[in-house]
Design a protein that fits this description.
Length: 501
């Protein structure tokens, strides 16, 4: 397979992380120390053995980007760059965590003293620069951002629940060594040397209760009333092999800003350095050539030992994303209406992120993707990968935010200018309904087997290394680059109640 090969500049921070990653690569993936250094403790008279590796499984840092508001336009590029550097620091710290298990077993303060403490200092320096950049551009930076500098270590079987885990201010007094917290699987990896997914990340679709999706986001905006039409755009399944580990929305101008590889359909000139003009002048994989929008999502991989084109690259194997990239068998991209009335046109270059690539540590407040199996569409989950029966495809579905603030094509945290519909399908005051983007991806994937607490040949979404390939971290991105005539056609079709393509 190929990848986007546009010439890039490589920031110093990225080079540093690359060096750290190179030290942590083995067998095509990030080394996840698969041993059990025992630490014996007396709990209530019982001598218990715990796995240091299982206890401090990952690094949990407050998401500074989600807390930033009111950044002046001329400071946004600098702020996004600083946030991307902060992500690189977390990746670097996680890689150190994953490759120092023996040292951790011999020193209860190792994680705090050599990983979390220095990481806090580096994050504090970046937060100070962000505050300075906002103030220099005429904004008013939040003086409390410093409270988000500290991170903590925590077990893989603890997922934050809808918040920032107390702001992440544990400060690692016990180095994140929380009690006897050995994973239920009893393992640090699934047998292939990579952290995640593990057996607990999978569920037999037959064990999922119908109509029990546990996400409060992603409500379908369409229904029996209001604007009942739809518009489907066919943009293929990335037959052109356009892959990179950039994120033009969240980290513009930063090479490897996503730390995982994306599939792209639609616009064929999408990388971290693409301008709006580049997008407008690009080719498109969509059959309707008026749709040069970019639609992208993290690739799914089958962890079967395949050495992909990015096996030794940042975003790929150097950051724990290993195995065969699985293209969708089908990618359905559809725009629908509003249950409460007509929709209005999306502005050109509107940017929308849905889901959260850091949901494992951030909590599920922004989690959105529904996982299911064909033939079982009434059974959907956000925090498990489904085990589908033979002949059934894995389904990955998302409904985007469809309420727009009427003014901005982006916002400082890349979320505030858009909102999900309310329970009745309406938009909150001050927001207006635009066509809702719905993406449904279907995959032909051999069903993994789970035996003795381990999963064999699992599939997983690409993720930031410290997110451990959890299914709840799935997310999708969209930039509207439809020409004016096509957007008007989409709106008219939806408002007339017709199904068009």
């Amino acid at each position: 397979m190929g990848r986007n090969t546009r010439k890039r500049r490589t920031p110093l921070a990225t080079k540093i992380v690359a060096g750290a990653a190179a030290l942590a690569v083995g067998g095509g993936g990030l080394v996840w120390a698969n041993f059990y250094a025992s630490a014996h403790e007396d709990h209530g008279g019982h001598n218990r053995t715990r796995s240091a590796g299982a206890q401090v499984a990952t690094i949990d840092c407050p998401d500074v980007g989600q807390k930033i508001r009111d950044v002046p336009d001329r400071a946004r590029g600098e702020v996004d760059g600083e946030l991307a550097t902060m992500d690189s620091q977390i990746t670097n710290a996680y890689q150190r965590l994953a490759t120092t298990r023996r040292a951790q077993a011999g020193d209860a303060q190792f994680v705090q003293n050599t990983i979390l403490g220095p990481l806090k200092d580096r994050r504090k320096a970046i937060i100070d620069r962000i505050q300075l950049e906002i103030n220099r551009a005429g904004g008013k930076a939040d003086d409390n951002l410093d409270e988000l500098a500290g991170c903590q270590g925590r077990p893989a079987d603890q997922q934050n629940g809808g918040g920032q885990n107390g702001g992440g201010q544990d400060d690692g007094q016990n180095g994140g060594q929380n009690g006897d917290g050995q994973d239920q699987e009893g393992n640090d990896d699934n047998g292939n040397g990579v952290a995640g997914p593990v057996a607990e990340d999978f569920v037999d679709i037959n064990d999922v209760q119908p109509n029990s999706r546990n996400s409060r986001n992603g409500l379908a905006a369409d229904g029996d009333g209001g604007s009942t039409g739809s518009f489907t755009t066919d943009c293929g399944v990335n037959e052109n092999n356009l892959f990179n580990s950039d994120n033009l929305i969240a980290a513009p101008g930063v090479d490897n800003g996503a730390h995982h590889t994306h599939d792209y359909v639609g616009n064929q000139d999408n990388d971290a350095f693409s301008s709006d003009e580049d997008l407008a002048n690009a080719d498109t994989s969509c059959q309707n050539q008026g749709d040069k929008s970019t639609y992208y999502w993290p690739v799914l991989r089958l962890q079967d030992g395949t050495q992909e084109f990015d096996a030794n690259d940042q975003g790929g194997g150097a950051e724990g994303n290993i195995g065969k990239i699985l293209k969708p068998a089908e990618a359905q991209i559809r725009f629908v209406g509003s249950r409460q009335g007509d929709v209005v046109a999306m502005p050109k270059f509107l940017r929308v992120i849905t889901g959260d690539a850091k949901s494992f540590t951030n909590g599920d407040a922004n989690a959105n993707t529904s996982w299911s199996c064909s033939g079982f569409e009434d059974r959907q989950v956000t925090d498990k990968y489904p085990l589908c029966p033979d002949g059934s495809q894995v389904l990955r579905t998302v409904n985007f935010q469809s309420c727009w603030d009427g003014q901005n094509i982006d916002s400082a945290n890349h979320r505030d200018h858009m909102a999900f519909v309310q329970e009745d399908g309406s938009c909150a005051n001050g927001f207006q309904a635009v066509p809702q983007l719905q993406i449904r991806l279907a995959y032909d994937i051999p069903t993994p087997t789970v035996e003795n607490g381990q999963v064999q040949n699992p599939y997983a979404v690409d993720s930031f290394p410290e997110q451990l390939h959890k299914p709840i971290t799935d997310h999708n991105d969209f930039i509207n680059v439809m020409d004016e005539d096509l957007m008007n056609e989409v709106v008219d079709c939806i408002n007339r109640g017709e199904d068009c393509q």
